Amino acid sequence: MIRLRKIFTNKIVLALLLLIAFIYLNNTSLLAKPRTGSPFLLAHRGESQTFHMENLKNDTCTAERIYPPEHPYLENTIPSMEAAIKDGADMIEFDVHITKDEQFAVFHDWTLDCRTNVKGRSNDYTMAELKKVDIGYGYTPDNGQTYPFRGKGIGLMPSLTEVLERFPNQAFLIHVKSDDPREGELLADVLGKLSPERLSLLTLYGGDQPVASARDKLPDLRIMSMATLKSCLIPYLAIGWTGYTPAACRHTEIHMPDKLAPFLWGWPDKFLNRMDHADVRVITVRGNGSEFSSGFDQPEDLKALPQGYNAGIWTNRIDLIGPLYNKKL
Fold first, then answer.
1. Which residues belong to the active site?
2. pLDDT at residue 51 tops 50
3. pLDDT at position 57, please?
4. 3-state SS of the chain?
5. Looking at the structure, do residues 166 and 216 belong to the same domain, yes or no?
């Protein structure tokens, strides 16, 4: 009886050792297919004025806390996108809000009060009226002593259609700021007029409801929302050690904080190869996920990335990061 128990125990130990060996061999990047090429650079809001993020809240007016300007560009404008492309951006993120006449204005904030010389929300104005707004009015690096962009932002707020027409071959990450499913439907109506080739360069992210409603009308549109992230990553964390990639991941985008990425099965190379196979774009952001706008903004930040990393990098300073990868045109 004792001998049988010992044999049984030994078999359990052997099975556990074999399982551990399988998990290691199936997820170590040492045995992964080599990855080549340079990283995919995603410029947040184009080339923009950066700001300190201490005690940042959802309603913080970031235009009132910018650093002393190092360049003349304002976020989410066509000149800022042109500059980002020149500095090596593979993709540009921008934000959209619905207007009174049901167009989409490219602008970050929920209200116009912080950055501009008018009050209210974008849907209080037509697109033509928003063209008359000074979007540089509220920027100050010194608590209101000077306003270096005041009077220089009139006419700079573009519409979504203008951006897509101005950059017909550029990849964009479009952030729908609301959680209104109707906005997703209206966005799908706009994007549905594009060719399949043009649509393939676009990704929509934001609230669960508008993203889902847009995907319902445009099944080929790449998307990301909190719902799609959970549907992909929670099952992957549970059984990804087997090499299985959940079907919910397919043709989506994942933003992964660099502090949390090492907890993914197969990180970095095995994981990235699996995501490539599932047509998932992986973008690594800085930090632990508490602030998804944190980017790799200084050369020393890049030391946090795995050696040879070549997937997506989120940056607020494409002017500093792009040239490091010889992407400056």
1. 44, 108
2. yes
3. 77
4. CHHHHHHHHHHHHHHHHHHHHHHHHHHCHHHCCCCCCCCEEEEECCCCCCECCCCCCCCCCHHHHECCCCCCCCCCCHHHHHHHHHCCCCEEEEEEEECCCCCEEECCCCCCCCCCCCCCCHHHCCHHHHCCCECCCCCCCCCCCCCCCCCCCECCCCEHHHHHHHCCCCEEEEEECCCCHHHHHHHHHHHCCCCHHHHCCEEEEECHHHHHHHHHHCCCCEEEEHHHHHHHHHHHHHHHHHCCCCHHHCCEEEEEECCCHHHCCCCCHHHHHHHHHCCCEEEEECCCCCCCCCCCCCHHHHHHCCCCCCCEEEECCHHHHHHHHCCCC
5. yes
**pLDDT 10s digits, 76-118:** 999 999 999 999 999 999 999 999 999 999 999 999 999 999 9
Considering the domain architecture, whether residues 193 and 264 belong to the same structural domain is answered as: yes
- Structural domain including 222 reads 34-59+67-110+158-325
- Total of domains in the chain: 2
Structure tokens of 25?
Answer: 């061999």
**Residue (of 169, 172, 144) closest to 158 by Cα position:** 172
Identity at 174, one-letter amino acid code: I
pTM above 0.90, yes or no: yes
